[in-house]
UniProtKB/TrEMBL annotation:
Higher taxonomy: Eukaryota, Viridiplantae, Streptophyta, Embryophyta, Tracheophyta
Reactions the enzyme catalyzes: O-phospho-L-threonyl-[protein] + H2O = L-threonyl-[protein] + phosphate; O-phospho-L-seryl-[protein] + H2O = L-seryl-[protein] + phosphate
Top-tier EC class: hydrolase
Name of the protein in question: protein-serine/threonine phosphatase
Pfam families xref list: PP2C (PF00481)
Length: 420
């Protein structure tokens, strides 16, 4: 009786969890699964893309992993697109303060993207080459998506319920009134191409140079008022995740955002990118380089995905299973999360002062000041706080991030200021 009574009051022990499972949870940190697909058709061979899913904020720390997806649409040659693909990520990361946690990293990322884009432009222009490139650069950390872009490549977000959001801004002079006004105010001229007899044809262009875009990386022969300062938008996805479609203008000249999203719903990302390119080709033909990345951000609850088709015979069956799975996710998440996303940050100003903030100059342990753009340490006498004008007795000692002489010169040129 006593033994029976004592056994009844003993607490139930929870089942043991294998060590491998605990380690797996620690490494995964319950981050979403990233699945992606890529497809492209070349007309001029000037499109390049970057896919990197193993980036880390903290070396040798798997829990700090994040992913980068980007498209670079070159013009006037491929040098700018190749250089930007190979260097932009490292330039962005060099502008991130060391020793910060994940929340601080996400808050610092928009400013670091601006610094990284400008530094990439400065370094490329030093090579003396005249090509240029658009850049649409996407950073995915958990359910937080940060997109920085110059030019007319585009990134859209398709979430549960068929809601499509544009995460970039097109910097085409033909369509962007604010950018036309900025370029002319900075010293550029905007107009169409004049042919014999005075007839104007084609889209609006910036002169000198004849570029249709108001923002790009490179293009040193056009004028510094064509700026590399990106539009940046940061959003937090709901628990249902979402799909990103990142593509060059070869897609968007043929398809609207809604058409692109609709063309590939219900299928795996690997096939989805091919379907978007196929639809653009069917709609317009191959008139430009056409590149598409599709990225699915799948929350931990939905890690189980349909099997990849092994043979041609069961491909159709796999598509049906994929569509059923997509519908199942929609039904299961209807009760758990909202359809929309939370917008954390958005800024598109082309004024560097407004994008780098008003923090005090960054001093290093050596007493030098670190340039907010190129990240090179300089003596205080070799540069200026970014908000400062000419030095005067009334100048405040701390008026914004420090810029070295070269980056200060770049800032002034982008704003149409002439060197004295």
């Amino acid at each position: 009786m006593n033994a029976s009574s004592s056994s009844e009051i003993m607490p139930m022990r929870p089942p043991l969890v294998p060590l491998a499972t605990l380690i797996g949870r620690e490494r995964r940190n319950d981050k979403p699964l990233i699945k992606y697909g890529q497809a492209a058709l070349a007309k001029k061979g000037e499109d390049y893309f970057l896919i990197k899913t193993d980036c880390v904020r903290i070396p040798e720390n798997p829990s700090s992993v994040f992913s980068v997806f980007a498209i670079f649409d070159g013009h006037n040659g491929v040098s700018a697109a190749i250089y930007t693909k190979e260097n932009l990520l490292s330039h962005v990361m060099s502008a991130i303060p060391e020793g910060i946690d994940r929340e601080e990293w996400l808050q610092a990322l928009p400013r670091a993207l601006v610094a990284g884009f400008v530094k990439t432009d400065i370094e490329f222009q030093r090579k003396g080459e005249t090509s240029g490139t658009t850049a649409t650069f996407v950073v995915i950390d958990g359910l937080t998506v940060t997109v920085a872009s110059v030019g007319d490549s585009r990134c859209i977000l398709d979430v549960q319920g068929g809601v499509v959001s544009l995460l970039t801004v097109d910097h085409r002079l033909e369509e962007n009134v604010e950018e036309r006004e900025r370029v002319t105010a900075s010293g550029g001229e905007v107009g169409r191409l004049n042919v014999y007899g005075g007839t104007e044809v084609g889209p609006l262009r910036c002169w000198p140079g004849g570029l249709c875009l108001s923002r790009s990386i490179g293009d040193m022969d056009v004028g510094e008022f064509i700026v590399p300062i990106p539009h940046v938008k940061q959003v937090k996805l709901s628990n249902s995740g979402g799909r990103l479609i990142i593509a060059s203008d070869g897609i968007w000249d043929a398809l609207s955002s809604e058409m692109a999203a609709k063309a590939c719903r219900g299928v795996r990302a690997e096939l989805a990118a091919k379907l978007v390119v196929k639809e653009a080709l069917r709609s317009r033909g191959l008139k430009d380089d056409t590149t598409c990345l599709v990225v699915d951000i799948i929350p931990p609850l939905h890690f189980r995905i349909p099997p990849t088709p092994r043979t041609k015979q069961n491909k159709f069956r796999s598509l049906i299973l994929a569509k059923r799975f997509h519908n199942l996710i929609n039904k299961s998440t209807n009760k758990r999360s909202s359809i929309g996303v939370v917008e954390l940050f958005e800024e598109g100003s082309a004024v560097l002062v407004e994008r780098l903030g008003k923090d005090c100059p960054s001093k290093t342990n050596s007493g030098l000041l670190r340039c907010a753009v190129c990240q090179v340490d300089q003596p205080p006498t070799d540069g200026l706080p970014v908000n400062s004008g000419p030095l005067s007795p009334s100048s405040k000692p701390c008026e914004g991030p420090f810029l070295c002489t070269n980056c200060q010169r770049k800032k002034d040129a982008m704003e149409g200021k002439r060197s004295t």
